Structure formats: C-alpha cells, structure tokens
Amino acid sequence: MPDSAAKDLKFAWHPFTHLKYAPKNINIVSAKGAHYFDEHKKKYIDGISSWWVNLHGHSHPYLIKKINQQLKKNAHSIFSGFTHPQAIKLAERLVSILPGQQSKIFFSDDGSTAVEVAIKMALQFFHNKNYPDSYRERTKIIALENAYHGDTFGGMSVGARNAFNNAFSSLLFDVVHIPVPFKENRTEVLNKLKATLIKNKCAAFIYEPVIQGAGGMVMYNKDVLDEMVALCKKAGVICIADEVMTGFGRTGKLFASEYLKNKPDIICLSKGLTGGIMPMGVTSCVEKIYKAFITDDKTKTFFHGHSYTANPLSCSAANASLDLLQKKETLKNISKISEAHEKFRKKISGNKQLKSVRCLGTIIAFELKSKENSGYLHSAAEKISEFFIQKGIILRPLGNIFYILPPYCIKMKDLKYIYSEIENFLKTC
Ligand SMILES: Cc1ncc(COP(=O)(O)O)c(C=O)c1O
Questions:
Q1: CATH for 64-325, among 3.30.1490.20, 3.30.43.10, 3.40.640.10, 3.40.50.10900?
Q2: pLDDT at residue 1 in the model
C-alpha cells in the first residue's frame, strides 16, 4: 500500500463510507476543468461535479484570481455587528435573481445548515408573530417521502426515515411525510396534504423542487407540486424550497422553483453557490418572515450564526461564480449538455437492463432493473463505481441508480465518452 493510502486509512474518516468494505480512497493531487488527477497521474472525468458542487470546472483561473484578491484584503471578519463588501454585493445579487419575492439573505456554511436555518426561521416566525394562540402553536412540518435535506438533526428530521438516520430515529422530531407527487397519485397526494393541513398546526412545507437528488434522482410532477405549494400557501404554511442541489442551472433553469407558478417563501442554497470552490450555504426569505424578527423584545432575536458566517473568501467565490454563470457561454453550455443528455436518453431508453432513464436539464439518471428494491444500499453500487473508476470516470451511484451531473465546462468529447462507457457497462449487466 502506498504511504499516502496507509496514512489516509490510519488517520482520516471519510463521509458516507462503509468502513469495512470500501475500496481505498483515491488520492487526488490536482484537478483542472472537468478532470481530476490522482497521485499516479491517472486522469478521471468528474461526472458528478465533485458531489454536485462544481459549476465551471476545477481550478478555474477567474475564481482563483477573485479569491486571491479577496485573500489579500480580508480573509475573514465577524458578521455580527460587522459586514463587508463581498457579502453586501452577494446578498443584493442573490435577491435580484432568486424566484419569488425573496428579500433577505442569511449566510451559513453548507446545505445542511442552510436547511437548519430555514426550519428554525419558519418555526420562529410563528413563535415571534403576535398571532392568536392557534397560530403560535404551529410547529408541524410537512415534507416529501424519500426526501434528503442534510445530516444535521433538523435536516434528518425532515428527510426520509431510512438507513441514513436509523441510529437517531427516536431523537428526530415528528414530521408529516407526503408521497412524492406524480400524475398517477395526484388525488391521493392532494387529499393527504389537505387532511394534514386540517388536522395539524402546520408551520412549513419543505421540498426539493422537481427532483429529489440523494433519494435517487427522482424527477417528479411539477404541476402537482405547484398545487401542493398553492394549498400550503393558502393555509398560511411557509413553503421552503431546498435548492441546495437544484440551484444555479442544474435543472436547465437557474433555479428549479422557476418551473412552478407558486414561489417559495424561503429558499436554501449551497453546493454550486461558490462554483464549488469554497464552502457556504445561504437561506433567503421573503420580507414578511424577516419582519417577524423586528421587535422590541430581545428574546425574539434569531439566535443563530456560525463562526464562518458570510466568510469573505466564500462570498468572493460566489460573486465570481455568478459572473461566470451569467455569461452567455455558460448558459449555452447548460443547453448543450441538456440537449446531449436528451438525445442519449432517447437512444438508450429501450435498453433491457434499465428500469428507467430520466433527464432534467444537465442531469441524466439511469436506474438498473433488479430483483432487489431500488435504493442507496443496493448491491449494484460497488460494481457501478468500480467499472467507471477503471474507465477514468467518476460516477458515484446511489445504489442501483447512477447519473451524470457534470460541470458546465465539460467537453462534448468527454460527455460522449461517458455515454459510450455507460453503453459498455450495460452490456456487462
Ligand atoms: C437537497 C439537499 N439538501 C441539503 C443537502 C445537504 O447539503 P450538505 O451536504 O452541503 O450539508 C443536500 C446534499 O446533498 C441536498 O442534496
């Protein structure tokens, strides 16, 4: 075993990694564009944008330049009682491009904390407001079955109950989970939601708009979701769009909430926010929510914040990433990837090994047919990973579901290579 692998094994504990059977971790020493390079100079195509974060490619010179400029000015300053130009600029820009009437941006560290902030904001909104008691008691949260909203306790509570959070099940707060909406179960879904809204004192409805990522790239019905959001809004329930995965162009629109007529009251963002180069999460909210926190009563303050809130380097990366995202060339690349995916979907959709192939914007997902239930712990995961790693492609499967979610800078040559290796892989099944 090379020294690096032995030391890694000895000292590092990797996320979402089965410690007994996982193969040794590949030591990535550099990354450029849509490629990773390991310590043996082997090249890999990053088919999953480094866990869905990377938008413009690794080591993008513009992002590096902007972060370097900021590094020389201010690497970090406290964000309570103080502010800084990059945060002000970013907040203004996000408010101007986010769907709905978003008016304020709250900064945090990652997707999970962006969700945690959203949940606390929504619950405290009802606590703070001088509503009649029936409103103040609104604490129930509605979520979708099969959802994933992160690994903190709030995020786990609103997520599906599964192996990810089994160990903590007795400690998670109670949530009403509604089936994922499709055309076929529209009536069932809407009836369950209506009954929930009548029976419970509901505070918020949280959803990954249009596509559930970690739940298996499940692309569901946007029209039924739209009706659900409308029903919740009518009942005074705060709607939270978790756009941690879908934000910044992944679904073909800048934000997936743009597919809906009814816009969220709160939006969670992370992953692509900084172009995938610095950690940061944000939670936006409409003015009505912010206003509930403006009160003479100090106990109604939003007591939440992290040491690195609105880190200036992260904010400068996010501003630089937005500069790139808004370029015509990037939007063209998003369209090109979406068109190529759709073409490949049509080509491969009759394949006998596939239960389903689905695509939305820059995401294409393949679900292998199997006697086992589909899901994250499906035994096909290791075979899929291993095949593609050998071919120099990084596609991290969700059990028997694998997908391409590439950085927007990926070259057509690389995308076509991934498609052809997927066809080769299916021949081995
Ligand atoms: C929809 C959604 N919400 C929240 C999260 C959690 O984000 P993070 O891993 O940055 O904490 C994820 C991560 O995959 C996600 O897909």
A1: 3.40.640.10
A2: 65
